[in-house]
UniProtKB/TrEMBL annotation:
Biological process annotations from GO: peptide transport; transmembrane transport
Keyword Ribosomal protein among UniProt keywords: no
Any GO MF annotation of the entry: ATP binding
Keywords, alphabetical: ATP-binding, Nucleotide-binding, Transport
Pfam family, one: ABC_tran
Protein name: Oligopeptide/dipeptide ABC transporter ATP-binding protein
SMART domains: AAA
Length: 334
């Protein structure tokens, strides 16, 4: 088994709520609340969940684009949140991000060659001619016409702009990349092209990905393992195919039951969740999912379940995991 490249240990990220003339802190938005995961070298770890569950915040905390309120994030065994500015600047070469908006993440006043070449100017001592040569190589690697390097971002399509962002992310040959909703703003046909490009680059460059997305089918296609988040908590982690075939947490089962099927006449056991997602500023007691869970019992509202390994490679935070002894039964919903 590959070694752990990323180790997230009990990470919390709270955003203070200020109120009144004195701007006092009256509470916190618990965007990420005690999350622990590992990402193995060379794998793609998919992260899914509803909007506002803390996926993107976790990705940014892992890269230290935002500081953690508490907890540790280790890259190759070193805690990046305890690094000095100089150490962190060096670490930036090995950790990069692909943003969701392929246009907003690119400086509209920069030529494409300057956007892609900027990391090389900041982190290396390459000459202008060497940078130009490397930019041409990178554009060709991601499937762009290098002769268009003297154009501006608005002269490219959405898919091409995302390829520019990918070329910038891999310019320094990083080990780890956070793909934060990297395909959600693209057309379906373009999504598949970008996903295939990321998988190709992973094989050729030995990259490790944290792939954050809403599209469960996309996550299934690209990920080796999947983590499911709900209201700042990790509720289930497992190998992709096993998790999709046999979800243990009711929230995971509900998400998977909403995936459109190619055979509409085939009967499905659809789980329709009631109510809205609670506020992360005032999460429910006990299990955070219990107000919407069709299997909730009294214990669920009183005791918060820990993320526990219940099967080899399978972790779930649920008092009554689906299909386990003494657990929930999907057939009861028919």
């Amino acid at each position: 088994m590959a070694k752990n490249l990323i180790e997230v240990e009990h990470v919390k990220k709270y955003f203070p709520i200020h109120k009144g003339l004195l701007n006092r802190v009256v509470g916190n938005v618990k965007a990420v609340d005690d999350v622990s995961i590992t990402i193995r070298e060379g794998e793609t770890f998919g992260l899914v969940g509803e909007s506002g569950c803390g996926k993107s915040t976790l990705g940014r905390v892992i890269l230290r684009l935002q500081s953690a309120t508490s907890g540790a994030v280790k890259f190759n065994g070193r805690d990046i949140h305890s690094m000095s500015s100089k150490e962190l600047n060096k670490m930036r070469e090995e950790m990069q991000i692909i943003f969701q908006d392929p246009f907003g993440s690119l400086n509209p006043r920069f030529l494409v060659k300057d956007i892609i070449g900027e990391p090389l100017k900041v982190h290396t001592k390459m000459s202008s001619s060497q940078i130009e040569k490397r930019v041409i190589e990178l554009m060709e690697l991601v499937g762009l016409d290098a002769s268009r390097r003297n154009r501006y971002p608005h002269e490219f399509s959405g898919g091409q702009r995302q390829r520019i962002g990918i070329a910038r992310a891999i310019a320094l040959n990083p080990k780890f990349i956070v793909a934060d909703e990297a395909v959600s703003a693209l057309d379906v046909s373009v999504q598949s092209q970008v996903i295939n490009l990321l998988m190709k680059l992973q094989r050729e460059m030995g990259l490790t990905f944290l792939f954050i997305a809403h599209g469960l089918n996309v996550v299934r296609h690209i990920s080796d393992r999947v983590g499911v988040m709900y209201l700042g908590k990790m509720v289930e982690v497992g190998e992709t195919e096993t998790l999709y075939a046999n979800p243990l947490h009711p929230y995971t089962a509900a998400l998977l039951s909403a995936i459109p099927k190619p055979t509409p006449t085939k009967k499905r056991n659809r789980i329709v969740l009631q109510g809205d997602v609670p506020s992360p500023a005032n999460p429910p007691s006990g299990c955070r999912f219990h107000p919407r869970c069709p299997f909730a019992q009294e214990k669920c509202s009183q005791v918060e379940p820990a993320l526990t390994e219940v099967l080899p490679g399978r972790q779930v935070a649920c008092h009554f995991p689906i299909g386990m002894e003494g657990g929930s039964d999907l057939n009861s919903l028919k």
